[in-house]
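Notebook entry, structure prediction.
Reason for the run: the old model in the group folder had no record of what sequence produced it. Starting over properly, with the input documented here first.
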Amino acid sequence: FFLLQKERDELAEITTGLQQENAFLKHELAHLKRMLFGTRSERFVPCDPGQTTLWDNGPQLEEAPEVEQVSYERTKPGKKGKAVRSGLPAHLHREVEIIEPENLASGAKKIGEQVTEVLEYTPGKLFITRYERPKYVQDEKIIIGELPSLPIPQGNAAPSLLAHLLISKFVDHLPFYRQVQMLKRDGVKIAESTISGWFSASCKLLTPLYEALKQKVQAADYLNADETPLPVKSAQKKGSLDKGYHWVYYSMHSQLVCFDYHPGRGREGPIDFLQNFKGALQTDGYAAYEKFDDKPGVTLLACMAHARRYFDKALDNDKTRA
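New structure, fully documented this time:
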């Protein structure tokens, strides 16, 4: 009798272990399916040794998941009405073209008009501002009008053209070689090296503006911080790319974003940028931000979007507690 009872206990223990292993494997399978077919931003998330996780161990099952049936009512949408065309913007310049009917008698009386507006497009036009400065002799001295200040000394690029090139590159994602081809279609040939020189000079002009932006973001009392990789051309090896990082700081109250570039992902980046920061700093679980948890005057906040992922994953395992 005792031997039979012992065998039953061992069999029950093996059965319980197999049930737990089966539940764990189901959980792992659901996790892999979510990684493969879930939301794009959640697919194939790499395991970074610097990123901390909420749980390091597998799920511990205490009870079987409950099955809950949910029902709801919805209002069936009616038939779609006729689409209403939105009006064209009132601020746009309008060129009026009057079309008179053919064979109109001389005594016809006008009782109204029917207006039809169509949206036209004319490609951006290049033009030249020509500064003509007459020279005069006065009291044996040559007098000439002063030339307006130009962004690039001795250059022939106006501020409007420089702004267009930079916006096309960084907002519209048009590299300079494509812009060179677009200028050629307008009959203007400018070497790509010339545009690159204009770009470097424009960046120097924008440096004080960037420093002012940086100071305003650093003075905020609540910041969101994150880092993102980007490929960078290598100066040592032609044709190869290095990995750099943009450390991004967002001030929600002022709606300002500051990008701080560093060649690596070490904690030196945020420590240098936030050395005088006082307030709440919200980040993900990357280990580089842990230093601020002990810094006086700084409250380190976690990211609710990252924490929510694990509760969402636990729905299949224990819906009630999740």
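Summary: The CA atoms of residues 33 and 43 lie 9 Å apart.
The old model has been moved to the deprecated folder.
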